[in-house]
Amino acid sequence: MFGNLGDMMGMMGKMKEVQSRMKEAQETLNTLTATGESGAGLVRATVNGTKQLVKIQIDPDLMKAGDNPADDREMLQDLIVAATNKAMDNVEPLIKDHIRKATEGLLPNIPGMDLGNLMG
């Protein structure tokens, strides 16, 4: 009878440790960064692990006015969006790996259980 209670207490303690490590991992996500490029590297966007855009780099040649500034502006906007989306895609596996490492050894490896989704 007391064995089950002891197991329950041990599981509760382990869950508290998981929560603590998850919180710590969440607080350090901003240290992760990933970059995405578009236009063969003419535009580079960098995002952090909290999915905030932290840097945009635009090749100086793109800033030179061409024959149609409206077309140039639209192209630049498209390149920025594409580079940012690639950076977001590139940071996703880094976030999952960061969370996995933070909780490693605490939880059994249950197929289909993805703690990375807990990060929102």
TrEMBL record:
Which regions form coiled coils? 8-35
Carries keyword Transferase? no
User: Which GO molecular-function terms appear in the entry?
Assistant: DNA binding
Q: InterPro entries attached here?
A: YbaB-like_sf, YbaB/EbfC
Family indicated by similarity: Belongs to the YbaB/EbfC family.
Extract the NCBIfam families matched here.
DNA_YbaB_EbfC
Q: Does the keyword Coiled coil apply?
A: yes
Report the protein's function. Answer: Binds to DNA and alters its conformation. May be involved in regulation of gene expression, nucleoid organization and DNA protection.
Q: Which UniProt keywords apply?
A: Coiled coil, Cytoplasm, DNA-binding
Summary of subunit composition and partner proteins: Homodimer.
Q: Which Pfam families match?
A: YbaB_DNA_bd (PF02575)
Q: Which domain of life is it from?
A: Bacteria
| Protein species of origin | Fibrella aquatilis
> What GO cellular-component annotations does this UniProt entry give?
bacterial nucleoid; cytosol
Q: What is this protein called?
A: Nucleoid-associated protein J2I48_14435
